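Input chain follows. Return structure tokens only.
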Amino acid sequence: MSVPDLQSMLLPFLQVLSDGKSRSHKEIVSELAEKMHLTHEQCNLRHAKSGSNILSKTVSWTNFNLCKANLVFRSSRGRYQITEDGLAILNQNLKSINFRFLRDNCPAYKDWTCKGPSDGKDIDDTPELPAKLPEELLEEAYSTICSGLEEELLDAIKGNSPAFFEHLVVDLLLKMGYGGSREDAGKIVGKSGDGGIDGVINEDKLGLDVVYIQAKRFADPVTISQVRDFAGALLAKKARKGVFITTSSFPKSAVEFVAQIEPKVVLIDGQRLAQLMIEYNVGVSVKDTYEIKRIDSDYFDENEL
């Protein structure tokens, strides 16, 4: 389930404003949702990373494009109305409009999309504007960068020694809030296996509970028997929690197995390990930072004359 994209909302947006009355963003969102028969779930979808409401953001960017095309204007602070050009578009009884239509029929929109050096390109040779929200494009680009970084991290781990991997596991668990001090954690993680257990680490700084660790730098997938051995070792220790960390992967049977047993066992495969390293800044450093800013409505409300 998803929210209609920007281009799908262009004409319905104008139709909502067709009576010439000004409306707030909230009113437009509500009327568009009703007009486009959007479900409660669609109206409440949020971006996984930013947490912002997808429908509200999509309506905002639809409004932005229509304003650039001079089909909608801001009649007062936070309120919008259709223009004479917008009404003229509606009078054509079109079934839909898109970015290409705006560029071909609205001089203001054409001027805006063609700002900057053209490098000799004709307007018809310029690419279509993406129908996705800028936030979605950023999230997709970020996801692509992270995927490449995950592969690099796993290659780097596999290229190092087992002792390095033990050191990495300690660093990651500490960054995640386990183990108390590095000295304490280093003493109990990475020791010789004891019935399938490579170490024990405190779940919190006070040591109120412990987590048993199995950490294997494997090239081949972990077998179901190795996971069973670890679970059996936990039962022998009367342990309640265990984490099996590997640089490779787990078979589906292992995932199904740990979901059915009494000790809580978390399986962390290579991909998840790399994701956690990125999230907790283990073995990675920040290269660039881009700040996404939004208007501070409180500022304008407090300083209104």
